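Before relying on records like the one below, remember that each one covers exactly one chain. Contacts with other chains, cofactors or solvent are not represented anywhere in the record.
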Amino acid sequence: MALFQKQNLDIRLDLGRVHECAGRARRSFALMLAAQLSGPILWITPQYETQRPNPDGIRPFLDPARLLFATPQRPVDSLWCMEEALRSGVVPLVVADLNDYPALTPVRRLHLAAETGARYSAKAPPLGLLLTPDKGGAAGVETRWLLQPDSTEEQPGWQLKRLRARRAPPRAWHIAQTPDYCFTAMI
């Protein structure tokens, strides 16, 4: 699945796999990604987490009614919830907002669940996105992205970096939001 596909900028996330995004604007990355997909989005945030997506903040990206929220009590339950959602193949995107990096074994389980979900999905294979703190560091993810705010007075913007990918080199882009809520990426 390619973000900003019309511009052919090589910002790509493979479906049926689990990816990671870190940085201060990681939730914006998840919303940009969700806007590219159709159907409901499952957003998993631990119950104790105080920062959650706000409908007014979601609206510039997509209709907030598309988001389903799960709030498990324990961190391990967040990964279990993500695994089961990916395995079902019912939602196109499963986002887990984590406070720590999962180990390799849970990430591998998530990949296997996404592959299983691809067989059950009536449409496209599901995509898993781990939102992690700092600069990321989850082992075994397909790609690792870093998104930082980089706005001007005239236009919201972000610096997007692909830090790691199995099939592509590291790269950076500037992403801007136009007045009609379209997103453009420039090298």
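DSSP finds four helices and eleven strands in the chain.
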